[in-house]
């Protein structure tokens, strides 16, 4: 339609749009006049009500309130939620127009190909119209798929592989493409109640921002009215909690391999500007090739949520007068083993464990990237000693130990001849104490770590092509053998406490204010239907398909 | 505020210095700068030869709904019942909400409540298999065009509210170029298919005229 049709429409200033007919769709009543657009005044466009003035002939408009932003507006502009949404919107539109214009160009090309192909074959009119019809049908399918949202129904759930405080993780297969993934399902309401929405958004942002073999890759993010979903690459080798539960203590060379890979993963996260702050063995997975991937960045952000900080500080205060209980290395290890047996998954619950957290995080003080080095130091200690450095016989004792960490941190000492192999070498112990130390002297750069003698034999540039200590034996791409079996009551029992805590949260009275749709804007990610392409198991660095470089954010 | 509607910026993306070269965002921006400045949007709305009109309308309804979800989402913190007690597109245009279900009569709502109701209403239709069939081969319902017109008419109001009440904030957030491009695209689309009555568009008349004038200049 030529623009003139519109321009010809009467729009003299004296004409006030009359009441409009509203089109109602769900009623047998005839269309009738509604007043859903109300003119504030019947005065017409007199000077007194004129809010739009034509200043120039150029068609620019002058606003009636060229007011500078007020203080509250300027403050809001600085909040991370607002900034984040603006960034997401930026990316969304750039990506949208990239996709849209790309679609149109490709479509034109497809049409040209169709035309030249049919021309060259000298078809009968009947054959031509049949082929045209089929070509147009294919185009129509592409268009229809473009507006089809991703829904959880499009995934076939194979098995549950995880249980956390906010929801479950499933091994699932996207029906249309056959692609296997780990589908993390979280309840919006629970996340809202626990002030954790931001953490989920941060996780989504980290996952979409990068494409490195060290971080678990996000395939899709989508939502429905009750849940948000993250579909991530399935990493079949299980997490390090399971690995440690099974192996107890690691040989030094194996510990070195894994902790080096963990450092590589954490460095990737740091490069993106995020600090994890709550690293623990559960956050590291073993992929199909035996190499390490970091997952679960939910807590990685500038600040813990204030409620959580208060509760951490409170717990630390409560134990300030407690005496440290002295225990021998053997005692500590067996105590820890029996605690783990009773509650193998206690870090999965909403409250989580403080075992690996740096003191400045627990105290709610300012902190830097080095808090993640502390956590890795604790994990390295656990690899070599069989228990984390500050674990106690009760949560209270652990808190007491953390409060008094310089006194509690001691080199494990085994004196029985058969246990001597478990004693740390000098160089390993030195490395541990460079990481678990006061933040003023703690290691805080990759270079410091790389140059430590403990890693003399480590080739940091070729980690992913170094043969790993163990390669998961997998029957198929949907083998869940390295995860707990959620259909077995025995394995399920490990999660009793996690589920209990989840129930408690659900019982918390709803927050007074309702949450609007705004909070989840910009969560959805990944093209529905075709396009994302099938990605296999976490097969190392093989995930560099070219068309994924500009994945969509629909 | 020499250009309230920032028309000069409707055609290009403002280069931002904080986007590092080589990143995905940088690539996209380069691409957008290179393509959106020309008459491409005008061509982008035209029904491709042989395409089903309803299919074309449907995919754009979803797209513009997503655009507005994104755009309005950036100002939800600013658009509160206190700041925007009535849904309006400038002081002269106030909108009442009616959906025949929860609100049987045209009802005065605050802008955030109105937009929430409006977006939920559209979402409900987009998810309704009998209105927007997703399965391949299922035809659109008979009254589809009427439904589409209602959707576009209502979506326009969100653009109207964004421009009249939140434009400064959107500028401060650095996304006015995107709002302008999105609205320009939206307006060219409704213009192409005659989806919204002229009198509904009056709140943004000046902007609309400018878009058409630019457009005529560009295609001549």
UniProtKB/TrEMBL annotation, chain A:
Q: What is its EC number?
A: 2.7.11.1
Group of enzyme by EC: transferase
Superkingdom is Eukaryota
User: Is this entry keyworded Phosphoprotein?
Assistant: yes
GO MF annotation terms: ATP binding; protein serine/threonine kinase activity
- PROSITE patterns (alphabetical): AGC_KINASE_CTER, PROTEIN_KINASE_ATP, PROTEIN_KINASE_DOM, PROTEIN_KINASE_ST
Low complexity bias spans: 1-14
| InterPro entries associated with the record | AGC-kinase_C, Kinase-like_dom_sf, Prot_kinase_dom, Protein_kinase_ATP_BS, Ser/Thr_kinase_AS, Ser_Thr_kinase_AGC
Q: Where is the AGC-kinase C-terminal domain?
A: 456-535
- Which residues are recorded as binding ATP? 184
Where in this protein does the record put region Disordered? 1-21
Q: Which SMART domains match?
A: S_TK_X, S_TKc
Key word Magnesium present: no
Which key words tag this protein in UniProt? ATP-binding, Kinase, Nucleotide-binding, Phosphoprotein, Serine/threonine-protein kinase, Transferase
Reaction(s) catalysed by this chain's protein: L-threonyl-[protein] + ATP = O-phospho-L-threonyl-[protein] + ADP + H(+); L-seryl-[protein] + ATP = O-phospho-L-seryl-[protein] + ADP + H(+)
Taking every annotated instance into account, which residue ranges of this chain make up the domain Protein kinase? 155-455
Q: Name one GO cellular component term.
A: spindle pole body
* SUPFAM superfamilies associated with the record: Protein kinase-like (PK-like)
Q: Name one Pfam family in it.
A: Pkinase
Entry's Gene Ontology BP terms: intracellular signal transduction
Q: Which PANTHER family match?
A: CELL CYCLE PROTEIN KINASE DBF2-RELATED (PTHR24356:SF417), SERINE/THREONINE-PROTEIN KINASE (PTHR24356)
Write the protein's name.
Answer: non-specific serine/threonine protein kinase
UniProtKB/TrEMBL annotation, chain B:
Q: Name one Pfam family in it.
A: Mob1_phocein
InterPro entries in the cross-refs? MOB_kinase_act_fam, MOB_kinase_act_sf
Protein name from the UniProt record: Uncharacterized protein
Question: Metal-binding: is it a keyword of this entry?
Answer: yes
Q: Do the record's keywords include Lyase?
A: no
Task: Give the highest taxon in the source lineage.
Answer: Eukaryota
The UniProt keywords, alphabetically, are: Metal-binding, Zinc
Which residues are Zn(2+)-binding?
A: 79, 84, 161, 166
């Amino acid at each position: 339609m030529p623009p003139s049709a519109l321009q010809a429409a009467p729009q003299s200033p004296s004409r006030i749009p009359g009441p409009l007919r509203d089109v109602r769709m769900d009623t047998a009543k005839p269309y009738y006049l509604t007043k859903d657009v109300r003119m504030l005044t019947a005065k017409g466009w007199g000077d007194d009500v004129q809010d739009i003035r034509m200043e120039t002939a150029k068609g620019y408009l002058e606003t009636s309130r060229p007011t500078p932003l007020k203080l509250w507006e300027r403050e809001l502009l600085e909040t991370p939620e607002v900034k984040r949404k603006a960034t997401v919107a930026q990316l969304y539109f750039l990506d949208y127009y990239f996709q849209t214009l790309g679609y149109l160009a490709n479509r034109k090309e497809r049409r040209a190909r169709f035309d030249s192909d049919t021309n060259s074959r000298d078809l009968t009119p009947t054959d031509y119209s049949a082929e045209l019809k089929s070509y147009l049908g294919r185009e129509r399918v592409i268009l229809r798929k473009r507006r089809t949202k991703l829904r959880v129904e499009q995934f076939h759930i194979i098995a549950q592989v995880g249980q956390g405080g906010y929801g479950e993780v499933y091994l699932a297969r996207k029906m249309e493409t056959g692609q296997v993934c780990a589908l993390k399902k979280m309840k919006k309401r629970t996340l809202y109640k626990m002030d954790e929405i931001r953490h989920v958004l941060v996780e989504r942002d980290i996952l979409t921002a990068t494409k490195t073999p060290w971080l678990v890759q996000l395939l899709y993010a989508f939502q429905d009215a009750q849940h948000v979903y993250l579909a991530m690459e399935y990493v079949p080798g299980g997490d390090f909690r399971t690995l440690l539960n099974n192996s107890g203590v690691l040989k030094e060379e194996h510990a070195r391999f894994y902790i080096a890979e963990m450092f590589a993963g954490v460095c990737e996260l740091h490069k993106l500007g995020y600090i994890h702050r709550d690293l623990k063995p559960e956050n590291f997975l073993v992929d199909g090739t035996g190499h390490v991937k970091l997952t679960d960045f939910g807590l990685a952000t500038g600040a813990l949520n204030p409620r959580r900080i208060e509760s951490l500080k409170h717990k630390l205060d409560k134990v300030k007068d407690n005496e440290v209980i002295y225990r021998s290395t053997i005692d500590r290890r067996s105590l820890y083993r029996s605690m783990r047996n009773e509650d193998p998954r206690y870090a999965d619950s909403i409250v989580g464990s403080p075992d690996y957290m740096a003191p400045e995080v627990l105290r709610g003080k300012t902190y830097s990237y080095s808090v993640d080095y502390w956590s890795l130091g604790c994990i390295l200690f656990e690899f070599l000693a069989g228990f984390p450095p500050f674990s106690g016989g009760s949560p209270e004792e652990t808190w007491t130990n953390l409060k008094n960490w310089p006194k509690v941190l001691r080199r494990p000492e085994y004196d029985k001849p058969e246990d001597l192999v478990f004693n740390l070498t000098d160089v390993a112990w030195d490395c541990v104490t460079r990481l678990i130390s006061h933040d003023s002297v703690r290691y805080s750069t990759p270079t410091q770590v790389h140059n430590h003698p403990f890693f003399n034999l480590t080739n940091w540039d070729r980690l992913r092509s170094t043969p790993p200590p163990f390669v998961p034996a997998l029957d198929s791409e949907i083998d869940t053998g390295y995860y707990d079996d959620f259909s077995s009551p025995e394995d399920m029992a490990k999660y009793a406490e996690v589920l209990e805590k989840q129930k408690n949260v659900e019982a918390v009275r709803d927050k007074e204010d309702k949450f609007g749709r705004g909070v989840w804007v910009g969560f959805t990610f990944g093209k529905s239907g075709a396009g994302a392409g099938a990605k296999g198991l976490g097969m190392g660095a093989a995930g560099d398909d070219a068309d994924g470089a500009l994945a969509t954010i629909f | 505020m020499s250009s309230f509607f920032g028309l000069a910026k409707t055609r290009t993306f403002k280069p931002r210095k904080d986007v590092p070269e080589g990143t995905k965002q940088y690539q996209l921006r380069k691409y957008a700068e290179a393509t959106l400045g020309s008459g491409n949007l005008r061509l982008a709305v035209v029904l491709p030869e042989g395409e089903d009109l309803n299919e074309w309308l449907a995919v754009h309804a979803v797209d513009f709904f997503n655009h507005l979800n994104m755009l309005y989402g950036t100002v939800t913190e600013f658009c509160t019942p206190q700041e925007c007690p009535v849904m309006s597109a400038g002081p002269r245009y106030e909108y009442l909400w009616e959906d025949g279900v929860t609100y049987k009569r045209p009802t005065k709502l605050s802008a955030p409540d109105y937009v929430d109701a409006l977006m939920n209403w559209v979402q409900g239709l987009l998810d309704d298999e009998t209105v927007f069939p997703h399965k391949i081969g299922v035809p659109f319902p008979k009254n589809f065009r009427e439904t589409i017109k209602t959707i576009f008419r209502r979506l326009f109001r969100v653009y109207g509210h964004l421009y009249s009440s939140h434009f400064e904030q959107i500028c401060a957030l650095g996304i006015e170029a995107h709002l302008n491009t999105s609205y320009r695209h939206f307006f060219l689309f409704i213009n192409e298919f005659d989806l919204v009555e002229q009198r509904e568009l009056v709140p943004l008349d000046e902007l609309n005229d400018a878009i058409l004038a630019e457009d005529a200049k560009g295609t001549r």
